[in-house]
Write a sequence for this structure.
């Protein structure tokens, strides 16, 4: 019995969703430059030709995934948090809680962190310390760290390097979320403690 038009559409949508989901994880692990379309198709479990039915190129597929996972909403929320008239300690605790909640509830968030970190390293001209820290995410975090150091609640050290360390730990746990089945997620308290002085 032939499939109905509606059933064919459901199958197409399910296949497209699977391609996007599996490719997102593959790109997060291997980066854009480290991904060959033949390996990607094998990873997804479809033929290379089938992949090209849905996406004309690796670039088109990646751009769609990157649009789904870009940081624009997170940066907007982080800017709002940074402007709140509260202490840096409270801001950092709120940020840490938000990150851990997202990591627990949303695999896409973990992929977003991994993909955006990969893209930072793949950008042309990524050759010096000046280019490493152009991310708005790092710059806003740096401002909260500077505020906290003035208030005495944040550990001593170069603010941008501390921001790098903080987001590096988030990246590590994002990879664990994506690629391991048994791991213990960092607590929001321990994540915040990367930047905050011991309050005991």
């Amino acid at each position: 019995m032939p499939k109905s038009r509606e059933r064919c559409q459901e199958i197409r949508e399910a296949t497209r969703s699977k391609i996007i989901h599996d490719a997102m994880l593959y790109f997060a692990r291997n980066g854009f430059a480290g991904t060959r379309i033949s390996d990607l198709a094998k990873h997804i479990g479809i033929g290379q030709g089938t992949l090209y039915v849905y996406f004309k190129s690796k670039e088109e597929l990646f751009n769609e995934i990157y649009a789904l996972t870009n940081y624009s909403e997170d940066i907007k929320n982080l800017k709002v948090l940074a402007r709140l008239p509260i202490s840096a300690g409270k801001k950092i605790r709120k940020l840490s809680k938000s990150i851990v909640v997202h990591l627990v509830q949303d695999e896409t968030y973990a992929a977003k962190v991994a993909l955006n970190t990969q893209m930072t390293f793949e950008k042309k001209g990524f050759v010096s310390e000046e280019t490493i820290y152009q991310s708005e995410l790092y710059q806003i975090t740096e401002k909260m760290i500077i505020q906290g150091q003035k208030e005495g609640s944040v550990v001593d050290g170069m603010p941008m390097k501390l921001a790098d360390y903080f987001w590096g730990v988030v990246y590590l746990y994002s990879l664990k979320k994506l690629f391991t089945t048994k791991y213990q997620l960092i607590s929001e308290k321990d994540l915040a403690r990367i930047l905050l002085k011991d309050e005991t």
Remarks:
- Residues 124-128 have pLDDT under 50 and may be disordered.
- DSSP finds eleven helices and no strands in the chain.
- Residues 77 and 179 are 27 Å apart (CA to CA).
- Residues 5-30 form the longest helix (26 residues).
